[in-house]
Design brief:
About 40% of the residues lie in helices and about 20% in strands. The mean pLDDT is about 95. It is an alpha+beta fold. Strand 13, helix 3 and strand 14 form a beta-alpha-beta unit. Strands 1, 2, 6, 7, 8, 11, 12, 13, 14 and 15 form a ten-stranded mixed β-sheet that branches. The chain folds into three domains: about 280 residues, no CATH class; about 110 residues, no CATH class; about 55 residues, Arc Repressor Mutant, subunit A (Orthogonal Bundle). The termini are far apart. The protein is elongated.
Length: about 475
């Protein structure tokens, strides 16, 4: 019997509130170490936590976006463990009564759709950050107490590709809802992977948990490695130990960190300083009204504008893409034309970045202005691409000025082009014969020659029309 890989994911996503989860300290990345701290988040004796209402709303908003049941009653508990970056020696979290239950996301891999169930979304605080140097380890408590949600999936994934598709969809949803900036390089979204293997028809195997995964590429590689490692161990007659393993991205291997803890090892108990959280149905509905248009709704709208399902899917994969498309469309109401440029040229730039957090560095109004020049025949495709390359790195670059400065205005004068093309037609009788014989590919030769003769300014459509007229 073949081996089956079983994967569950725990995603920690910091919420982009202005202040921390249980105190009024700034929730801001990159400040000087230990400056966004107070007696509460550094666990001074007698300091008491106060729950951040905005953090609760953002957690509920995300729960509603993925179809969770929002619990009217939830409890904050202390998760006890000792580590230098945890000032209190416990983390305020939720276990028995989380804020959100159930829900899920649909993914698609190789044309096959699959629904990945969620177990829960609960609200908790982040720990501080350890900074290791050659002289020792330092602790920065700025991140300690930052609100985050832990999104726990059911073990519904069976391949590394499915896990990455799920994470991409989850990150996209977080960004759509606007509750997190999801900047992986800043640690505002982090992944833990639970993975086991078993033979078809047999009970689930012993799982290991993978830590230190900070990119989709790392998740893909780590799952493939760990799955193969577990299969190799079992086939050699060695049992899998339930443990937490660290992923070394440079070496492409996982290493033992510690024996895997269960919930009883953390000695959870209700936090006596925080009363249970009660949210009414009316309050939940008021938050539901704040939900933005999500990808499925936007996808339907784009298809109704004449876009293909594939194009609509590409544009709605990220909220940034959809927002950008709509911003350009407000200036130039040509859905298919605008979509074609974004999916071809803009996505080409994004794909070249080779990072998970890709950003469109373009002014949508100025891009619309450039596309209008192209559509109206003021510039040709080569000129449009040249201007686009400049605009990608300069948000203030004016396409109309660039047309004049770079001499890109397209040659639309029929008489002037005719004179150029008469010489080209007369000098290439073989190409003329091939075109007359029905070889349409030869037209590309004439367009190329015209571009060369006019320094790239000839209007390709006009060139084709004049050539056909001349060879009659």
């Amino acid at each position: 019997m073949s081996w089956k890989t079983v994967i569950g994911l725990e995603v920690h996503s910091e919420l982009n509130t202005k202040t921390k989860c249980f105190c009024g300290c700034k929730n801001e990345f990159g400040d000087k170490p230990n400056t966004n701290c107070c007696p509460v988040c550094t666990a001074m004796p007698g300091a008491l936590p106060v729950l951040n209402r905005d953090a609760v709303e953002r957690a509920i908003l995300m729960g509603l976006a993925v179809g969770c049941k929002i619990n009217n009653y939830s409890v904050f508990e202390r998760k006890n463990y000792f580590y230098p970056d945890l000032a209190k020696a416990y983390q305020i979290s939720q276990l028995e009564y989380p804020l959100c239950l159930g829900g899920g996301l649909e993914i698609e891999v190789d044309g096959v759709k699959k629904f990945i169930r969620l177990n829960r979304i609960h609200l908790e605080e982040d720990a501080g950050k350890l900074i290791h140097t050659s002289h020792g380890s330092l602790v920065d408590y700025n991140r300690g107490g930052v609100p985050l949600i832990e999104i726990v999936s059911e073990p519904d994934m069976n391949s590394a590709e499915e896990a990455v598709a799920y994470l991409e969809k989850l990150r996209s949803t977080l960004l759509y809802v606007g509750v997190s900036d999801c900047k992986m390089q800043e640690g505002s979204i982090r992944f833990d992977v639970n993975i086991s293997v078993n033979r078809e028809g047999e009970p689930l195997g012993t799982r290991t948990e993978l830590k230190n995964l900070n990119s989709f590429k790392a998740v893909l590689r780590a799952i493939k490695y760990e799955s193969a490692r577990q299969i190799e161990e079992l086939e050699a007659g060695r049992p899998i130990i339930q443990e937490t393993r660290r992923w070394d991205d440079e070496k492409g291997k996982t290493y033992t960190m510690r024996t895997k803890e269960d919930s009883q090892d953390y000695r959870y108990f209700p936090d006596p300083d925080l009363i249970p959280l009660n949210v009414t149905d009316k309050y939940i509905e008021s938050i539901r009204q704040k939900l933005p248009k999500l990808a499925p709704e936007r996808k339907k709208e784009y298809i109704s504008l004449g876009l293909t399902e594939q194009d609509a899917t590409l544009l709605t994969n990220e909220r940034e893409y959809a927002d950008f498309f709509e911003a350009v469309l407000r200036e130039l109401n040509e859905p298919k034309f605008v979509c074609n440029w974004i999916t071809a040229e803009v996505f080409k730039k994004l794909n070249a970045l080779e990072v998970d957090d890709r950003k469109i560095t373009l002014n949508p109004a100025l891009l619309a202005k450039m596309l209008k020049l192209y559509k109206d025949g003021e510039i040709n495709q080569a000129g449009a691409r040249k201007i686009f390359d400049i605009m990608w790195n300069d948000l203030t670059a004016n396409p109309e000025k660039l047309v004049n400065e770079l001499g890109l205005k397209q040659m639309n004068d029929t008489n002037e082009l005719r004179a150029v093309l008469e010489r080209i037609v007369n000098d290439n009788p073989k190409a003329v014969s091939e075109l007359k014989a029905g070889n349409e590919k030869t037209m590309a030769f004439f367009v190329g020659q015209a571009m060369k003769a006019t320094q790239g300014k000839a209007n390709p459509k006009l060139v084709a029309d004049i050539v056909r007229e001349l060879i009659k």
